[in-house]
């Protein structure tokens, strides 16, 4: 392949799907991972390996990467996009929802990093792009555990960026505001969901997954000696 392999988690919809389409159009072979493999295969993108993988399963994650590398060469970029948002009040929310978010949003991200980082360091080349959120920079009502996971994403990304900078490996945080995706549908509290939708309407609409895909492509396509450490983007009228 003339271009390097990119791995995208949570690629079956939203930001992951838009990013897959964008980077495929730019000529990259892709490993697309999600729980809904039918949605991945329906994209019908060229030079793509689709695998049904839950990012909390570290062994399955690593096995899929090895399979893709055998076909397309080493992973040059990992985009940790898979995530869940389960909003709720701290005194009411089922703790099982907190565990789900930390398992997917934090441990799933670390599983991906663990699968690719040693080889990137050895090659002195590679990029990891972690999809966080504005909720990883400030708090919001009913977001306690979700914000905790996204603050963790910011901290993990910056910490490892410092660790591997001398190995010429880049770590990048993408922090979107509200995006029109399926993320809100994961929340089980109807009152909170209605309030969130009202907030979105109040700003005249939110940004599209394609906007995030464009930012990811921009950051990745920079020369390897340039690391755009963080991109924060949201609708102009979003407050905060």
Order of helices and strands: EHEHEHEHEHEHHE
User: How much is the average pLDDT?
Assistant: 96
Rg over C-alpha atoms, rounded to the nearest angstrom = 17 Å
Largest sheet: 7 strands, parallel
Unreliable stretches (pLDDT < 50, length at least 5) are none
Query: How much helix, percentage-wise, in residues?
Result: 40-55%
**C-alpha end-to-end distance:** 43 Å
- The count of helical stretches stands at 7
Strand order of the largest sheet: 3-2-1-4-5-6-7
Classify the beta-strand content into a percent band: 15-25%
- What is the approximate shape? globular
Number of strands: 7
Which structural class is indicated by helix and strand composition? Answer: alpha/beta
Protein name: SDR family oxidoreductase
Domain Ketoreductase: 4-163
Pfam families: adh_short (PF00106)
Organism: Photobacterium alginatilyticum
Describe the structure.
45% of the residues lie in helices and 16% in strands. The mean pLDDT is 96. It contains seven helices and seven strands. Strand 5, helix 5 and strand 6 form a beta-alpha-beta unit. Helix 3 runs parallel beside helix 4. It has a seven-stranded parallel β-sheet, with helices on both faces. By secondary structure, the chain is an alpha/beta fold. It is globular. This is SDR family oxidoreductase. It holds the Pfam family adh_short. Keywords: Oxidoreductase.
